[in-house]
Amino acid sequence: MNSPNLVPPAQPPQDLPLPASEVRFRALIELTSDWYWEQDAQYRFVHVSDTIPSSFRLKATDFIGHASWELPHAGVTQDQWMSLRALLDARHAFHEFEMQRPAKDGGWVWISVSGVPTMDAQGAFKGYCGVGRDITQRKLAEQHLRDSQNQYQELVQWAPLGLCVHHNGRIVYVNPAAMRMWGAATATELQGTRFQSRIHPQFLQSEGARIQAIVDKGQHAPVRQAKYLRVDDRAIDVETQGMPIVYGGAPAVLISFQDISARKQTETTLRDSEDRFRILTQLSSDWYWEQDVQHRFVMLSGAVTASTGLSTLDCIGKTHWELPSLNLTQQDWARHRQVLESHQEFRDLEIRWPDAAGRMHWSSVSGAPMFSATGVFRGYRGVGRDVTAQKLAAEQIHRLAFYDALTGLPNRRLLQEQLKKTLQLNSRHRLRGALLFIDLDNFKTLNDTLGHDVGDVLLQQVAGRLGTCVRETDTVARLGGDEFVVVLDDLSEDALDAASQAEAIGKKILSTLNAPYRLAGREHRSSPSIGITLMGESVQSVDDLLKQADLAMYQAKAAGRNTLRFFDVAMQSEVDSRVAMESDLRDGLQGGEELELHFQPMVDVQGRIIGAEALVRWQQPERGLVMPADFIPLAETTGLILPLGKWVLNTACNQLALWAQDPRMAHLTLAVNVSARELREPDFVAQVAKALQRSGASAQRLRLELTETVLVHHVEDIIVKMGELRQLGVGFSLDDFGTGYSSLSYLKQLPLDLLKIDHSFVRDVLNDPNDAAIARTIVGLGKSLGLSVVAEGVETQAQRDFLADIGCFIYQGFLFADPMPIEDFNAFVIQA
C-alpha cells in the first residue's frame, strides 16, 4: 500500500533533494513523537519508522502485516479494543490510545498511539497513519505519585501522633489521634476553635512564642515537653513540635504531639522505686547486676571486684558460665540455664571465683527475670554477696567434724550419717547395698618396727588405692587405726546378685591392696581381711551393720587372713552355688539339648482343651531337672534370658507348626512367657516375625504372656511393639494380674486378649473374702475391656465352680493337668 501524499517516502533517493515541506514534516514528527506508522484498510501495519524505541522487543519489521491487537500487548481490555475498532470502522481519528508492548528486558513498555484516517485522491478510505510515543517514564511517575499520595493519607490518618493544622491561630484540621488525645468525639468540636485554647496556662506564653516564630521566621520548632488541655479541661502532658506548611494554598502551622501523661507518671513511680531499690540493695548486698535476654552482663555496680576478684570489664558482655568459676560443673550450669530459660527466680547460687593472684572468692548470687509492660522478657537483674569468710569457716568446721585428718576420707561420724540415709533409701525403694569392713593384716607389727610415721604413710596409700576400686557413688571411710569401711549403693534387687557384686568389689580390693608399697625407701607388702554384709533385706541399724561386717572380717582373719567372708556363712555358700549355676546354664544354652518345653493345658467351661502354656525346663546332667523358679531369675539378672527366650520362642513356633498338620491339634493356641529384658530389645518384633516365618506357624495361634512388672518401665515403647506384633496376628495376655504395678490407663492402651488371675488369689478364693472380691473385680474388668479371663492355679472342682459362677470360663491348673512333656501333652489332648 502506497504511503499518503502528505508523508514523505521512508528512504528517498540520495540524489534528489527532499521537498521543503517534507523536511519540515519529518522534523515535526521527530520533535512530537518517537515513531511514525501506517496501516492499510484492514488496519494492518504496512510501514513503521526506524525510530521505534530500542527498548522494544519487537523490531519495526515485526509489525508489518499485523493489526495492532494481533501483536503482543498488555494493559488493554477487550472492551477498550472494541471501542478502538468502533472508531476505526467509523473512520474517526483517535488520540492517546495507551497500551503496553513487551520490552527486551522481559518487562513491558507503555506507549501512547494516535492516528487519523487516510484517503486517496478520489476520497476513498486507504487506511490509517499516525505516531507513537514511549510514555513508560510518565506512567511510572504517575503511579509513584498515586502511591505517595495514598501513603501520605494513610500515614496522616493512622499516625499515632496527634496532628493539628491551624491557620491564623484557628484549628482547620485534626487527625484521629489528635481527637483522641484532646478527648473530642468529632473533628468539628475542634475545627474553628483557637489553638491557644488547647494550651495549658502554664505553657501558654512559651508555646505562643514558639508558634509565632514558626509563622514569622518559617522556623521548625524542635521537640519539647508541655501541657495541653483536653476539651473537658483536663491537663495532659505532651511532647510537641511544629513546622510551617502550606495548607489549602495558604501558609499554616502543623503541630504534632503525643500524650506522655502515662509515661511521666511511670517515670515518677520508677524514680521512687529505684530510690527505694538502691537503698535496699546497698543495705542487703555487695553489688547489683543486670543481664540482657541472652543472659550477658550489661551492668554491674558496687563492690563486684572486691567480692569476686573480677573487674567490671571482665564481666560485661559475658554470661555467668563464661566466667572462670571453679565449683560448678557443666551439668550445674545446664540446670541453671534451664531456670533462666524458663524465666524463673533463683536464689543463693554459690559460685567460687579465682582472682589474678590465685585467691578464691565465694559469692552468693540471686536474681529475678525482668519483663516489659507487655510481658516481653527483657533479661535478669539481681544482687550478689561476698560469702567467702562464711564458706571458709563452714568448710573448716565441716572438715574437722566429718573427715579424717590423716587420709581425708569420711570419718566414723560422716559414715554413720551416710549409712542412715542409705538404709532409709534402700527401705523406701527396695534397694540393696553392701558394707565391706576392711582391716589391714599385721599393721601393729609395722607400727612397732618402722614407727607410726611410716604406718601413717601406709594408711594414706591404702586410702588412695581404695578409691580406685569403687564407683564415684560408693563411699570409702576410715573408722580409725587400720580399719576402713566401703559402702556400696544401688546393687541388684536380688540378694544373690547383690552378694555376687559385693564379692567382685571385695576381690578387687584384695588384689589392689596386695600390690607392694614403697615405705621409708624400701618395698613393703600388706594384705587386708574383709568382712561383707548386705543391706536391704530388712530394716537394719548402722551399729548392727558394722557389727555384722566386723564379725565377718574376723571370720576372714580366722580363715588365714588376706581373704573375705560374708556375715552369713550360708550366704557365702549360696553365692558360690549361684556362680556355678550361671556357668552351667551358659553351657546348657550353647546347644540347647539340656532344655525342653513342658505344656500345661488351658480348659474352657465345657472341659475342652483350647490351648496350652509353654513352660521351659532345664535337664542338667549333674543337677537333674532344674525348675524355672531356680534358674529364670538368674537368667534375667545375668542377661542369659535373651538367648533362653529366643530358644523358647523358636521351639514353641515349631510346635505350633506341627500341631497345624494334625486336625485334632490345629485349633490349639500356645502361650509363651516374655520377660521385660526381651521386650526392651530393639529387634524383638523382628525376632518374633522371623520365628513365625521360619517355622511356618500361624501368628493367630501364638500368644505372648507379659507380667505386670514388664509395664513398670518403657511402657510407651512396649505398647508400640505390641501394636506391631498385633498387626502380624500375635495375641497377648497379661499374666499374674493384680500382683504388679499396671495402671488402668495403660491397660486400656494395651492390645490384650486375655487377663490371667494369679494363682495366689485363686488358692484361697473360697476362704478369703478379699481374694474372692479381687477375682470378681478382675473378671468384671475383663468384661468391661472386652477381654477373656483365665484363672491360674485351679486345683479343686469347687474353685472351678466358683470361678464359673462369677463369669470366668477358662482355667489352668492341677485340677486338669500338670505341665507335661510334648508326647504326654499330645496324647492327653487326643484322649480328651
Question: Can you characterise this structure?
Answer:
By secondary structure, the protein is an alpha+beta fold. The chain folds into 5 domains: 26-138, PAS domain (Beta-Lactamase), CATH 3.30.450.20; 159-264, Beta-Lactamase, CATH 3.30.450.20; 284-393, 2-Layer Sandwich (Beta-Lactamase), CATH 3.30.450.20; 407-567, Reverse transcriptase/Diguanylate cyclase domain (Alpha-Beta Plaits, 2-Layer Sandwich); 588-831, TIM Barrel, CATH 3.20.20. It has 27 helices and 31 strands. Strand 17 and strand 18 (483-491) form a beta hairpin. The chain is extended, with a radius of gyration of 50 Å. Residues 1-16 have low confidence and may be disordered.
Rg estimate, integer Å: 50 Å
Q: Quick one: overall form?
A: extended
CATH superfamily of the largest domain, by name, is: EAL domain
Order of strands across the biggest sheet? 23-24-26-27-28-29-30-31
**What is the CATH architecture annotation of the largest domain?**
Alpha-Beta Barrel
Q: How many β strands by DSSP?
A: 31
Beta content comes to 25-35%
SSE arrangement:
Blueprint: H1 20-32, E1 35-39, E2 45-48, H2 60-63, H3 78-89, E3 94-102, E4 108-119, E5 125-134, H4 136-158, E6 162-167, E7 170-174, H5 176-182, H6 204-217, E8 221-229, E9 235-247, E10 250-259, H7 261-284, E11 287-291, E12 297-302, H8 304-308, H9 312-315, H10 330-341, E13 346-354, E14 360-371, E15 377-386, H11 388-402, H12 412-429, E16 432-440, H13 443-450, H14 452-469, E17 475-480, E18 483-491, H15 495-514, E19 517-519, E20 522-524, E21 528-535, H16 542-558, E22 564-566, H17 569-591, E23 595-604, E24 609-620, E25 624-626, H18 628-638, H19 641-660, E26 669-673, H20 676-679, H21 684-695, E27 702-707, H22 715-728, E28 731-737, H23 744-747, E29 754-757, H24 759-763, H25 769-784, E30 788-792, H26 797-805, E31 810-812, H27 822-831
Helix pairs in contact: 13-14, 14-15, 15-17, 17-18, 19-21, 21-22
